[in-house]
Amino acid sequence: MKRKILCIDDIETNLFTIKSVIENAADDKYEVLTASSAADGLSILLKQKIDIILLDVMMPDINGYEAAKMIKGNKRTKYIPIIFVTANKDDETIESCYSSGGSDYVNKPFNHIELLARIAFHLSLRDKELVIQERESELMHEANYDSLTQIYNRNIFHRLIKEKIERVEESRKPFVLIMLDIDHFKKINDTYGHLVGDNILKSMTQLIKSHIRESDVFARWGGEEFVLSFNVPILKGVEIAQNLRKHIDEYVYESVGNITCSFGVTEFRLNDDIDSMLKRADEALYEAKNGGRNRVCQA
Question: Which pTM was predicted?
């Protein structure tokens, strides 16, 4: 796929020259788009995916420096490399090219080989940056999400609840913590195998996600145990848990049919920390298990 180069210059002969040089030397690599004003160039940037920009400095209405600052100030275009093309060679111009967001600059009249080399260099550099960003994103996802169910893992849940406790101590708005555990899950794994067990975990996760909001905190605590948090008082939290319990009970899972879950619910109390809340939720869950399973208890 050809890389798209946007050339912005108010002089048509300059645009024609740059376009001709690039297309004659590397027509198989690049597609050149042109704009005769900064406003036209910005409009193109918002409509098309541009890989690199060649930007003139001296233009009417909006000059190159102002255009560069606009480009770098927009989240959709801020990472596009900008190479200034200018006839000026003084230190002030060079400093302004970089301070306004330019990655590089070339002087007019430009050397054809140098221009093409700088374009290739900055595209290559941007590609490497994208690979690094993608890997960082993958590592961040792995650090925060459970690999099987693709919901939050235990570590990120700890951090989010700690932050929630800090906020609620100031706002005094209630929130609940819910722990749930799949009943007789070991028997399911022993009878049907771990692949079926994994599919149940994934299906149940999706079922729960379909009945909560994106802003609600939902994480896999470990094994067949999950935790949730909602910004509601205890009675509403118990109601939510009862609704989830019912949906899980009524859902028909592949290979095994129906499963059930037990729930423990607790509300934030003054001077609570995450450990004290988890302890109460776990005690309520234990009570639900001992009371016959497939039920909701609160503590």
Answer: 0.65
